[in-house]
Structures are given as C-alpha cells and as structure tokens.
Amino acid sequence: MTTQLFIYNEALGHLGERQLASLSEPREPRRVLDSYWSDVAGFCLAQGLWKFARRTVQIDNSSTLTPQFGFNYCFSIPIDWVRTIQVSTSPNMDPPLLQYSDEAGLWYANLTPIYVSYVSNDPLYGMNIGNWPEHFADYVSLRLARQACLRITNDKELKAALLREEDRARRVAKAEEAMDEPPGLPPVPFWARARRGAFGPGGLWLGGGAGGSIATGPQGND
Q: Could you give the count of Cα atoms lying within 13 Å of 141 in the half-sphere of its Cβ?
C-alpha cells in the first residue's frame, strides 16, 4: 500500500538522498518535501481524470443565489472539487449535460438537480494515498523530487533530468488510466443533436442558449 512516507523516500531516491525512517524525522530534506507536498499532490490530481479520485454527487440549485441572466439555476461547487469529469441531469450520468457554465466558483445550468462526476481531493477519494496506483505514485514522487531538487541538492542538471522523467511518468500514468477505461460511444455531431430539438432524451439541453450568468442574492431580481 502506498504511503506518504513511501513517496517521500522515492523522491529522495531520485535526488540521491538518504531515506527517511518516519515523517517526523528531524531532517532538512523532510521539511523541504513537507513544504511542497500539498501543492504537488494537488497539481498531479488536476492532470488527469483519475478513477481512484472520482466522486459523483447530486447537487441541488442554490436557494439563496439566482442567475441574473443566461441560465435558470446556479449550483455551489464542492470544496473538494479538482476537475470536472462529467455533468448530467441523470444519476447514472447518461446522457451528459452539455449546456452548463462554470464561472466564479459556481456552476450554472437550465435544469436541477444536476449530478456531477469529478476528481476529488477529499481524504476518502483523491487524497486517500493508500488507493493511489503505482503509476500515479511514481508520477507524484518525480514531481516532488523536481520541485525540491534545488533546495536539497542545488543541482540544476539533475532538475532538468527530473523534468523529463516527470513528463514521462505523467504520460505513463494517463496511458494506464486510459487502458482501464471501457470503450465509449463516439460523440454525436452537433448537426445531429440540433435536429432532435432543444432537448434530447433525459432532459439533455441541446440548444445554443446564452452562456454566462451573474448570480445574485435573494434581492437580485427585484
């Protein structure tokens, strides 16, 4: 099982440094890794649609905010949201909702409730390190090593080499994820969707619509 200590020691190995016995060991390399850890983990989570970090929730429209124009409803984005995978008006995520907007920390849509599948940094999802697959843990350790390289080793050539390795690890991790995905249906061309009318099966909004909305409080529509 992957642990934060394991990833730290992998990063230190890339830097040619001695491994840590624990996450509380009073050494400067550990403190340097600590300073980069949260940003590195968050950055790596945002780089793919990782299955181990996937979370799907139902979100009801806000009872206190109303779009001033454009869409009918606005929705608060979960605090553990990192990256959207899919939005739908159906709990089984089929069909996907294509007509929605993401502005200023809110989602806007013409239907409610919405169901959102997203990459989560919650400790039970994306930040559950024990569930990280090997290819993702390798990617994180290389990113962590590169970020900490100059402070720990002051070796610019090593940092350049780690950049190449990090890029390779990211591509491998995303390729491994793609290999495990079931085959999907090809996207429906826009002209075919348009012929079905404004709404398709399951309430999928297909019309052009006016994008963009400004959310106002209860008195915004007075």
A: 22
